[in-house]
Structures
1.
Amino acid sequence: MTTALNGTAFVTKDEGTEADEQQEMVRKVAVSSFLGNFIEWFDYASYSYFATVIAVVFFSNSNHTVALLETFAVFALSFVLRPIGALFWGSFGDRHGRKAALSLSVLLMSGASFLIGCLPGYATIGIAAPALLLLLRMVQGFSASGEYAGAATFLGEYAPTKKRGIYCSLIPASTAIGLLCGSLMATVMTSVLSSEAMASWGWRVPFLLAGPLGLIVHYIRTQLADSPVYNRMTEALASAEKKTGKGQSPLRMLFTYHRRELLISFGASMLNAVGFYTVLTYLPNYLTETVNMDATQANTITTICLVLYVGLVFLMGHVSDRVGRKKMLIAACVAFIALTVPAFMILNTGLFLPVLLVELAMCATLTANDGTLSSYLTETFPTDVRFTGFAFSFNMANAIFGGTASFIATWLIYVSGSALAPAWYMVAIAAIALVAMIMSHENADKDLEHI
């Protein structure tokens, strides 16, 4: 818009320019959210897909199953600090801003991943090798615990109300793309490298890549601004604190006023934790170790499934904008209860085409949950505890049920002798999540400031 004063023309910012600037900020937030979450899950995928190699490099046990259990145990133990990290990063992000928390956490997360790629193995430094691996995994778990929740919260607060589902679905999509890249790398490397080369240096490559990627994401995030929703909330809290002379911490407010929302969110996240880690990271090992399927075939199937998964996550996010989050999440629970056991029966045939079709069906079912959960959790908590509530419920579920999924599945088969044991475990988790979702409220059509 142009105005004149004493014959001189001045150009002032009009609504179109402000809208363009807002759209550019949303784009930057989306890019940084995507990349940060991508790094985290590319690393987790690499650890899972290269688990058999890592077991050889870091553990001395001659029993391959025990060494594999030890590898999965380190994977599970790395989740111990996730609830603590969630409380730290969530409270930090609710008090000091989403930008500040995410900029710092990505440096710690990517740095720990990079150092894992530099670790010498058991043959070089003995018991110190698995000890250092565990230490770095726990540092990474602590720093990564705010990434998914923080990125979804940050993006959800910028997104238009009517499109919050599809915007927030970018977060699980970046998760799937991280897994896809990990699967592709595992498929290619196991095909072209010898077992000696894989054990010597091949497995290190994906972890070393996290270093430069983390620096790029950190730089992008330093250029961002916190959302208007968050800024208005902090202004209101600052005004209230001036009047009363005191303020409440996000942790105290969460556990005092939002216990019901926290419990329901934890229940909803349980199925996501077990389903995600079982379907997308455990099944390749299940097919090779239990079904005795060729490793290259198993990794190829996972890669194909992840391609479909990415597209379906966006579709499910879009559908949830139309029908609501609650209906989508209930449908996912019912589908897992009905389909999981028959699906595992077909997986045990070890035939490429049936296994592929079953994994595709399981991925499609998982996307109904995964493509909806990030927007659902963003909408469950008010702005002053949104990051903390999302991060704690999501990471507590992942610490207890997600990080242990591969270990528990392997252990259940070991003690029961039944290859269907992991399927019944998933059915039980889906039943609990169904109860939680029936108790939940629908907030898909609400402005985040009105929650």
2.
Amino acid sequence: MAKTISAYTCTECGWQTSKWVGRCGECQQWGTVEERGHQGASLARTTRAVAPLAGREARPITRLEGESLQHRSTGIGELDRVLGGGIVPGAAILFSGEPGVGKSTLLLDAAARAAAGGRSSGGDGRPRVPGSDGRSRVLYASGEESTGQVRMRAERMGALHDDLFLVSETDLATVLGHIEAVDPALVIVDSVQTLASGEVDGAAGGPAQVREVAGALIRAAKGRGTPVILVGHVTKDGSVAGPRLLEHLVDVVCHFEGDRQTSLRFLRTLKNRFGPTDEVGCFEMRDRGIVEVPDPSGLFLSRAASPVSGTCATVALEGRRALPVEVQALVAKSATPNPRRVTSGVDPSRVAMILAVLERRVGARLHDQDVYVSTVGGVKLAEPAADLAIALAVLSAITDRPLPHDLAAFGEISLAGEVRPVVGGAQRSSEAARLGYVRTLDAAAETLQQARKHAGL
């Protein structure tokens, strides 16, 4: 006879155990192991096979027709770039980011543009988010702010429209009822961690609640052909809060990042079933909201009238986009036995390695000097292509000789003092030439000594 077997399963990764433990033995997450009782018989018993329904039989892949996915523009060019051309009907999009970075502001602007789109076309001639049936209503469900707060922000941004519907709810069933009543062309939920279902135990934001809320909203989106955007909180390490299953359920995962001290914001895709994942959107935070920056080439360059020592321009790749960035260095006599190494926008360990190579391979005297390295505009350089620009900026600061204003450098520096080629060299060179940098230093200079000579230092 069948007997009930009490099993415990991890809600994050599905790991099973016969007794309860506080920490999952597979993904090492705390508090994710829950009891799951199920009916079982002997181990030899298997599930009975069921014949497939008519028209659902397995067929050769060569005889299947590909599904055509039509991207509909949101009216924001940088957002369309990241999404692969726009929003696909029925798509589930997860939008994450640090608190206060501007997620709600950007989505409210996109909601107003979608509500104002209707049957009209975007700048590229494609229909906007509302579908071909003429629906232009957008439902913005906020669980963190009241409708009055959202209205005040929309008024400041100029994002008021009669087809933009606001609701402040934390109950999942009520939100689903609003979706049925409004029949929107786009649904935005801010945020998924604030909604709760009465059919699932636990507080809002728990793994079980987030899984149930996300699953119900995604099923509603797929069944109605209505795209839904879910705003998700992030943890201290920058990952999306809640069960890892949430990222698997959605079609697109976008991360909105930026430093609160600067106005620059970047939108990246971590997952996209309808387009590439290496696109980056650039935005700027202003008093009236977030404004897209189609050409951010001038944001990361200084505006000095004459060349200044300790500065060098490089070209960084953010996704498929080439961005010119200026690296600045300052070298001063240290007043302490342990010289300071201060960095901003660059990897400190990478700078320490470059300084060691300069002292050992080039003969630069840095062991008793304070070295400060920074980028212009608050941009962060994490790729090794900026090594050569950092090295030349430091050498320029030591000799107090400015580099030519039409020089751009990019290349990776090895511990042997070699300059190695980097990914996208041709794209970097073409972008530098477009901005007026006639001379470029890259892996053509085989060693750091040769690069120093070519730069005139």
3.
Amino acid sequence: MLTKDVAQAWIDRWDRQQEGYMPDREERFAVLIDAVEAGAGRPDPLVIDLGCGPGSLAVRLLQRLPQATVIAVDTDPVLLALGRAAYGDVPGLIFADLDLRTPGWSARLGLDRPADAAVSTTALHWLAEPDLRAVYKELATVLRPGGLFLDGDQLSLDEHATPTLARLERAVCEFDERRRFAAGRPEDWTAWWDAVTADPALAEAVALRAARSQNGDHGTPETERLGTHVSALRDAGFAEIGTLWQHGDNRLLCAIRS
């Protein structure tokens, strides 16, 4: 049986592992939540968290905005099991086991009104470009006019459109990484997954993950590019699109629903 304490310990370890790739992760969370608070237009916003993982962003958002409702969407059974065990009693938090690559996912959210905001962190670059474009088009149908989309992710410049800037951006990120991790990285992604999937308390979720082929396959280089996301959002009907916060290629991209 997966207890709350065991799940929280795994999530704490997950957060440390993620911070090993993104030392500014907590700052990016804070700025994203700043934008929701400033832009949602009400103290009780309805927010959709796309690719929520174990709920790290959703819980932080509800700590700041306790009247909000956050529908946290993911398809990884292990991460959902951890989130539900650790945060299942958090008021306003609803986990939804949905695959964003399956058309019609938004209709299964059970919304009683258009969402005020949608958020995501370090998740959507895992989608292939056709799936990403479809997700943005479907997302636009459930966001209210003027609603926010906020995506925190590592999104690089297009080397074809701006080759010199893209090269300099890569160099700046490499220098920064060497300085930050001069003493070595903490536990990495693979080591965390090897450890968590060996926990007997998660055996059922691990088996379901294997059945769903949640094997860590990445998307495509295109979905790691800023220009792909900007183009897809514009095609989906979002108006103003821009970067609210940035450290190297680590960005908070914001788009406003038309």
4.
Amino acid sequence: MTTDPIIQLEHVNVARGNNIILHDLSLTVRAGEHLAILGPNGCGKSTLLKTVTCELYPIVSPETQVHIMGRARWDLTELKRRMGVVAADLPGRQTLTTTGFDAILTGFFSSSTLWPNLHVTDAMRERAEEVLHLVGGEKLRDKFVGEMSAGQQRRIMIGRAMAGTAGEAQMLLLDEPSNALDLAAQRDLREMLRGLAQKGVAILLITHHIADILPEIERIVMMRDGRIVADGSKKELLTAERLSGLFGGEIHMTERDGYWNAW
């Protein structure tokens, strides 16, 4: 059964300053779909994410269309809650002095901390407890974010992104999620994301690390120089030949337990 698109981009060109970063890009992502956007640093992956979250806007042209969850216009605060965006950067200064549980609650308000003027309802607290369990963060409930390891912080930030998505077409947009994590933390993060994917949370992963691509992700979108150069199945695209062309160097690959590694 065909599901409605969550993300629909048609003939999108995006400039940053005087440079055009995305060139005539078209992409459709449907509800419940897991996919990875793969490409070298500087290929436009993060610009694409900012276009999806309406932080950047395309150059106006007659053929250009951007629809997110069926709508062309959004209040940015509402959209951030609905999309569940997890940025590559670790938490900012205000969030570091917030407990893990309160940091998840900030996801309802798209705020850096729980400011005194924010009203937290019982329903929000109930949802935050549910999310804390989903991300395996129970032991981090009362710990300050600034006292957590990078892996623990990333776990809480994923919970924060999920907080406001209950009852919606849930999707997590993850920008280079394994950045700044050691090998053990990377493994823990990937296993947590697998659990979320298996529970029906759609995963859109932006990465240049092949090992980040979860076994549940079947669709790969390859980007180079601001363009989509391939869009297909993991079996078709995750090959040494394809990756060597994408990254501009000789690459070898191996697979184990559904994960791929390249060198």
